Structure formats: structure tokens, C-alpha cells
Amino acid sequence: MAGAVRLEPVDERNLEPLLSVAVAEAEPDDVMPPVDAPAGWSHARREAFRAFHRDSFGGLPGPTGTQMYAILVGDEVVGMVRMARRDEPGTVEAGMWLGRSARGQGLGAAALRELLNAAAAVGMHTVVAQTTARNAGALSVLRKLGAKIREDGDRVVAEISLDTPQA
Predict the structure, then answer these.
(1) How far apart are CA 167 and CA 159, in angstroms?
(2) Do 157 and 133 meet the contact criterion of CB atoms below 8 Å apart?
(3) pLDDT single digits (tens) 132-153
(4) What PROSITE patterns does the database record attribute to this sequence (predicted)?
(5) DSSP state letter for 88
(6) Helix segments in the chain, DSSP class H
(7) CB 125, CB 91: distance < 8 Å
């Protein structure tokens, strides 16, 4: 997969391609909140995926306080990255997933770097992310971008200051 990473706000144009990547290259629990539905990518889970993303079409000012972006390489959707307002002023929480075929190529770091730029552009000062100690890929990306990492058992909290230069 070659080309520059760019982010597009998730909307009706890219929602179905995003769902297609999720179905083909990710597990439901990795890309959306848990749903009371049959296992796998059942019709109910696909509808819940659509609803989950549509709920955030309003972006940071909207009711969910969340801006979701499709991650694109060229014209191909390869995953999603989001930022969600936190209670602390100037702080958003980041989350991301990539389809299996897009992992291990530096795309996660590039997408998160773009998200940091987007967060700074709307006046944010801090981006936090949570993962597990087992998620080596996420930890590598977070460290590469200068995150301060705090471990608490299997839970890891990372904090990136947008007021200092990024790697």
C-alpha cells in the first residue's frame, strides 16, 4: 500500500467503504462498541456500525462530541481514527483501527499525526489514548509520537501534548 495518508470526515460517502474494510479485515469488537447481536458481522452488527458512525456526523460540536475520520491511502479506505471531547478543557481522546492489510506499514503513525494536526487546528492542547499493554502496535505508534505512557496493570494511558513539537 503506497501513498500519503489523509483523513476524511466519516459521512455517507465513505461509510459503506469503511464498513466493507471493517467486515473484511477486523473483528466487530475492535471497531465499535459491543452490541447485543449474533457473533460476527451479522446484519444487526452492520446496522449498529452504521448507526454508531452516523451518530457522530455532527463532529466535535455535535451531540456525541466526536469527530470520526476515514483513513485513506490514495482513494482506498483502510481504517478509522477519531477524536472525542473529554471533560478537561482542550483535551480529546483518540481511538483508531486499521484493517489487517494496512497494519505494520507506518500508516497508523501517519494517521495519528494527521489527527494531532486536526486536534491542534481546533484549539486542542492534549490528546489522550487508552490501550492495553498487549497492544504492541498501538504502543509503538504512541511512543513514536512522543506520548507519555502510564501503565496500570494491563491498562495503558498515553498523553500527547500538542504544545510541544511532535516526532
Answers:
(1) 14
(2) no
(3) 988 888 898 999 899 999 998 8
(4) GNAT (PS51186)
(5) S
(6) 12-25, 28-31, 43-54, 107-121, 136-144
(7) yes
